[in-house]
Specification:
The chain is α/β, with parallel strands linked by helices and 455 residues long. The protein has helices spanning 17-39, 175-182, 193-206, 267-273, 309-327, 377-388, 400-404, 423-426, 443-454, and strands at 60-62, 82-84, 89-91, 122-126, 161-165, 186-191, 215-218, 223-228, 233-239, 260-261, 278-281, 292-294, 303-307, 334-338, 395-397. Helix 3 (193-206) packs across helix 9 and helix 5 (309-327) packs parallel to helix 6.
Amino acid sequence: MQRWKWSNGSRKRNPYFPLLVLFLVAFIAFSTLHSEHSINQIHENPDHARTHQEEHVSVTYVKPNLLNRASEVLDRFSRCNSTVEYSGRRIAWLGGAGAGGGSRGSGSDRRVGTEKCDVFSGKWVFDNGSYPLYNEGDCPYMSDQLACHKHGRNDLGYQHWRWQPHNCNLKRFDVKEMWEKLRNKRLMFVGDSLNRGQWISMVCLLQSVIPADKRSMSPNAHLTIFRAEEYNATVEFLWAPLLIESNSDDPVNHRLDERIIRPDTVLKHASQWEHADILVFNTYLWWRQGPVKLLWTDNEKGACEQLDGREAMELAMGAWADWVSTKVDPLKKRAFFVTMSPTHLWSREWKPGSEGNCYGEKDPIDFEGYWGSGSDIPTMHSVEKILSNLGSKVSVINITQLSEYRKDGHPSIFRKFWEPLPPEKLANPPSYSDCIHWCLPGVPDVWNELLFHFL
């Protein structure tokens, strides 16, 4: 495996369709807004260092994803009865530590990093002749949190940048060819609001060639489905920000003081994703919000263990990797993992001496190899180690470095606000700028071009 470089039949028109679209847009926008406060606290107390709690306890290995183990499904009302020291438990999965061996990646795997040309290494080229790939106003499924031009952003340069690999060309997105790849298939994005943005991007890229009376969007609390009848295909999004079961699995009500996870099971979400033909996973930002409470599935007393975010993420990724290693046949199902999406919360990282963030930025960073604090290298190494053991079971789409350059691509203040902002906020735009998510059209469209390239 090449190591990642540090230098994602006719029918009558349905009279209720506009109402369904309005409901979907409002649902997506509200859920994004509802989580924004906690997400914006990620870098105020960054969780970079390990606690090394495992040095004081003996390590034992737990087989994940066992049926009928947990008596209670976690939800936003779940609480820990008490908190105890971390027991040292780790996840045992085929190919991982403690599993008694297992196959690793080989030269015949389909990992995207084995391509002769590294499409993840390149530069952004301004191209107002070919980009954007769609118009913001032409997509009825656009989120108000990502529709930056609609909400006042008039410098549209962010829509016209094309990713150019150094030694080759990225395959240009072809809508009809993509639909042929998806014919009779389910494409599902699984993860957090960044993955939801990539899903909206994909829907906006694809929807234009489908007649309005032959496409539909069925919003659901956890699973949202865009359906194209003539291709018998769906493009879906499943809210699962931590991949494993947690008390943050409500896509709207997840602003919680105490984050609780079941680190040894993905079965709750896997029951929704297991029948998809193409899976696109992500997880990262939610692990950077401080310590996490662990409630193992065999614990019936409600006693939680506490662990820092990165180590808890390793446990969760182990449970996810166990599912991938046992359930994914690369000849029948494609699984992709999208690496961390960077933030641009501190302008001093690309402009020494300044005290802002992404607000007001209009051009990409032109320093090749730039890497800000919004992307944690130790976390990326931990994820790389797990993914390398999965071999051909999963392909990695490394969006991190190319997205690091795009300080200009975030919504900043150009999005819908559901409540009036106080005067002191309005007087200080950086204080309420979203430097985490991405405007559409924009950077997530390139993530989907990469997905198209490898499909």
